[in-house]
Amino acid sequence: MHQINIRPEIIERVMKRRGRIHMHPSIDPAKTALVVIDMQNTFCAEGSPAEVAASRGIVPNLNTLTPKLRELGVPVIWVLHANESYGEYSDWDMFYNHIVAGDIRERTLLANAPTNQAVYTELQTKEGDITIVKNRYSALIPGSSSLERVLRSRGIDTILIAGTKTNVCCESTARDAMMLDFKVVMLSDCCASLSDEEHRSALENIVQQFGNVVDSKELFTLFART
């Protein structure tokens, strides 16, 4: 797990701009969902083609958090990444033809096949949890997944974001959520990236422009203020 803090100069900048660190001083658990991004073998398993080793470090925090949220009636939504391939083609040309190449490309395509996707086995899921598949970094851009429709149908206006990578799929989803008028809370101790620097950069982007950044303990103080 990353042991970092948002830099004091960033906090000072936020305070000068809006007079408080949290964009949303309180949130309503009845209108909140936990969205856990990409906690699957492709990213969590040791030796996987897109391994984020730190993702295994947040598993205990998630397993502590999810039962507490379920007790409050907060839906737990597992968002998994998958891409279809059709011979030499895929449903994400930009990624598979320009970002990865060679053996990594082939291994990632195989790892991301829809038939291979499941929540990482060390995570504790429960009946009633929701599983959604996305095919882009953000789960909220048009065509990526059904996440927005699921959230709107339940009257959700706030999403708690956890998972991996903090600075890629978690941040991309957080940015789009804010621009779709959802309140965003990124859970700093339930997100993981490839380095402390990348993790901190994403948290600092979110706290300045897109939502709250709290750890999983502080989250419950936001609920208590409603």
Helices, by number, come to: 9
Distance between the termini: 30 Å
Structural class: alpha/beta
* Proportion of beta-strand residues: 15-25%
What is the gist of this entry?
The protein is α/β, with parallel strands linked by helices and 226 residues long. The chain contains nine helices and eight strands. Helix 7 runs parallel beside helix 8.
Structural notes for this entry:
Helices cover 38% and strands 18% of the residues. It is of the alpha/beta class and 226 residues long. The strands form two sheets. Strands 5-2-1-6-7-8 form a six-stranded parallel sheet, sandwiched between helices. A two-stranded antiparallel ribbon has the order 3-4. The longest helix has 15 residues. The radius of gyration is 17 Å and the shape is globular. The two termini are 30 Å apart.
